[in-house]
Each structure stands twice: as structure tokens, then as C-alpha cells.
Amino acid sequence: MRIGELATKTGVSVRALRYYEEQHLLASERSASGQRHYSDRAVDRVQLIQQLYAAGLPSRSILELMPCVVTGEATPELLAKLASERDRIDGQITDLVSTRDRLDSVIASATATYLTGEPCRPQ
């Protein structure tokens, strides 16, 4: 498939796809006219790249992790890096849950204040 089709299927911009290629995260073959062509597996790969970016991993780390993700083979160093990234993500999840709980508390308090007709006052 061509780059525009991959962009449409993944919801990722053409510019981002070109960046992924520059970072060696994604590969394409070139036609005789120089157009990029991707395999059907590129959709899954782009989605994985997006997930890893969303988790806060930089492209350099994603590049290191890709062989393990694709083949399932890993060195002890790579396994340690994966565990470290997982622990970092777990910390982010804990922080986000705490933030959500605080927002729920504020919403509940503001809702109760609204229902009683009393103005909300800053604490």
C-alpha cells in the first residue's frame, strides 16, 4: 500500500510515517518512480509505534525494543530495559489514578454544593 493509504488506515499523518522511516522504525520499498510502498503488516507496526510513543518512549528506545517485539527474542539487557519501561508506565498509571480520584472528589463536592444552592468557595 502507498503512504497515503497507510496514513488513512492508521490515523497517522504522512509526515509522521516519513519520520518513522527516518528513525528506522518503519521500512518501505520504493517503486520505480520512487513512491513508498508498505506491506499489510505496516499497519500493525505503526499502531505499535503509536502505543509506545503514547507511553512516553522515545524513538531511540522504540528502535531498541522492536526486534524483541517482532521476533520475541531478547538479550538480558533488553529485558531489563523493558522491565524498566514497564515500571515507569506503572508509575504514570498510579499518578493518573490519583489525579482522577482527586478530580472525582472535586466533582462530588461541587455537585453537592450546587444541589444545596450554596456558592462554591475556594478553600
Automatic annotation (TrEMBL):
The record's listing under InterPro entries reads: DNA-bd_dom_put_sf, MerR-type_HTH_dom, MerR_fam
- Give TM regions: none
| Transferase keyword on record | no
Keywords recorded for this protein, A-Z: DNA-binding
Report the domain of life of the source organism. Answer: Bacteria
Database matches in SUPFAM superfamilies: Putative DNA-binding domain
* HTH merR-type domain location: 1-68
What Pfam families does the record point to? MerR_1 (PF13411)
**Protein known as:** MerR family transcriptional regulator
Native species: Streptomyces lasiicapitis
